[in-house]
């Protein structure tokens, strides 16, 4: 079911651009659809147990959410524009806030913020023009962002891969690392300061 009352038509089986087309048994998948900007699918009842993790496909501008090995959600996104590209790698959710404002960009609202780096990269509600348009954050539809926020936990794994504007058929939605790596964007100094309580995260 597509949340928000959105009508989403299944993609054709021979459509090479449709993301992750079929289940192993060849049966159509709930997620074998082409989503328009702002559309998403959220079906948390598909899996009751397991750690929640997310996979961001920058090439297709999609995020896939898994509980254990089962995909429970998929949404369109808007990632970083040229010059402000969203970093790739494996991240952990470092901070969660329902109400948050950017200290870097004129106090811009960032509802349902889930921080991935201490230097400003996060999931949050935002405009979805159908292309990369943020300053590096991953924008989400409001209803999806709310459900995603309520489902994740601190330390949850987020894998970001690909290149905006380039669809790589070799990228697999389920290809994530169990042990999160420290992304380059989170410098040793920032991590050390955060661990020692010397970093004022309220100002980030």
UniProtKB/TrEMBL annotation:
Domain L,D-TPase catalytic: from-to ranges: 52-161
Pfam families noted in UniProt: YkuD (PF03734)
Residue positions of the active site: 124, 137
Keywords: Cell shape, Cell wall biogenesis/degradation, Peptidoglycan synthesis, Transferase
Record PROSITE patterns: LD_TPASE
InterPro entries in the cross-refs: LD-transpeptidase, LD_TPept_cat_dom, Transpep_catalytic_dom
Keyword Transferase: yes
Keyword set includes Cell wall biogenesis/degradation: yes
Matches recorded under CDD domains: YkuD_like (cd16913)
Involved pathway(s): Cell wall biogenesis; peptidoglycan biosynthesis
Similarity field: Belongs to the YkuD family.
UniProt protein name: L,D-transpeptidase family protein
Originating organism: Pacificimonas aurantium
Phylogenetic lineage: Bacteria, Pseudomonadati, Pseudomonadota, Alphaproteobacteria, Sphingomonadales
